[in-house]
Amino acid sequence: MRIDDPDIFRCIAENLQLGLYLTDRDRRIVFWNREAVRISGYLSHEVVGRCCHEGLLTHCDVTGKILCISDCPMSKAMQEGTPHEARVYLHHKGGHRVPVYVRAFPVRGLDGVVIGAVEMFEEQPTALISERHEGILAAHGLLEPVTRLPNHAIMQSQVRSSLNLYREHGLPFGVLLIEIEQARQFEEAHSPEALRAILQVVARSISHVLESECLLGHWAENQFIALVQGGSLVELERLRKQVRELVSCSGIQWWGEQLSVKVEAGYAVAEPGDELDSILERAQQSLQSHKARDVAVAASIEQQSGPASES
User: Fold this and answer.
1) Are residues 67 and 60 in contact, defined by beta-carbon separation less than 8 angstroms?
2) Which of 56, 68, 205, 310 has its CA 20 to 30 A from that of 118?
3) What is the pLDDT of residues 204-247, one digit of tens each?
């Protein structure tokens, strides 16, 4: 076999430690490697022959804006004939969002005309706990069984530990309290099984928004808590917005229906004299304040649109 045999290049592409796929000019997928399967959850036979913008990866940015129509790196690479890179969130087959860094390159024929594109994507570090750490927590009964996140007890201990470090060494941190909106109504409309499935998707989407130095845990029935080391009020507000947007464009397929939920979040940073109850109370007050603001905004929009809809 010659070194320039096409099968050798295909074997190399198949075994790259990067997600890689090839499309034709119409963005129809013609090749999908093993790492692309691992990162996205989609098997090769589920995507080859389909257009990448047909409800597959549906890349979005950190604000939740879908990029497939006008800002897709692969589409730009083909249109402009130049490489394009971006940090995006792809839609995993399981419904959650995964942060990836993508690099798209145009593919040219022998005559120099663009005939397709290649996109490589690499998963970015997030707040997901390692499999080994997850196994240790599970062995000691410290994982919430549905979301597989550290449970209330371990998160309480982690907040107390951070408070001790703040008192003794001045290391700043913040907590982000996240709540699924109308969870009970969702369960009544679709079933407890659907709620458990959406909880898993929300948990993974949130963990993929947070940086690797953050710790995400399950706090209450429909609440999550994130421990953000070094977190300032500005940083926590940024994370609050990102969590909201990324969760809103995640979801599950349930008996042929696409289901999703919304979340709201509040936050607090450590202050002198804080105890566990005081910092969590401020985070809860912040959450309630943001929820009340959302209700007021929705009511205002409905009031403004009322006369127009009646006419």
Assistant:
1) yes
2) 205
3) 999 988 877 789 999 998 999 999 998 899 999 999 999 999 99
Is-contact 112 22, C-beta < 8 A?
A: no
Confidence of residue 296 (pLDDT cuts 50, 70, 90): confident
| % of residues, the chain, pLDDT over 70 | 95
Give the separation between CA 88 and CA 99, rounded to whole angstroms: 6
Q: Contact, 126 vs 233, CB < 8 A?
A: no
CA-based diameter of the chain, in Å? 75
Residue 99 CB neighbours (<10 A): 20
Residues 99 and 105: their CA atoms lie apart, in Å, by: 20
Q: Which of 217, 226, 216, 232 is nearest to 172 (CA)?
A: 232
- 271 CB-near residues (< 8 Å, 6+ apart): 278, 279
Give the torsion sign (CA, 128, 154, 222, 172): negative
pTM: 0.80
Q: Record the tokens describing residue 79, joined without a space.
A: 């249109």
Which position has the token pair 């917005």? 241
237 token code pair: 């507000």
Percent of the chain scoring above 90 in pLDDT: 69
- Burial (CB < 10 A; 0-12, 13-18, 19+), residue 94, is middle
pLDDT for residue 71 is more than 90: no
Q: 97-108 and 84-91 as β-strands: parallel, antiparallel, unpaired?
A: antiparallel
Phi-psi map region of 255: left, alpha, beta (phi>0 left; psi -120 to 50 alpha): left
- At 4, is the pLDDT very low, low, confident or very high (cuts 50, 70, 90)? low
Write the CB contacts of 296 (distance below 8 Å, at least 6 apart in sequence): none
Q: What is the pLDDT of residue 311?
A: 42
Closest to 58 measured CA to CA, from 31, 105, 95, 21 = 95
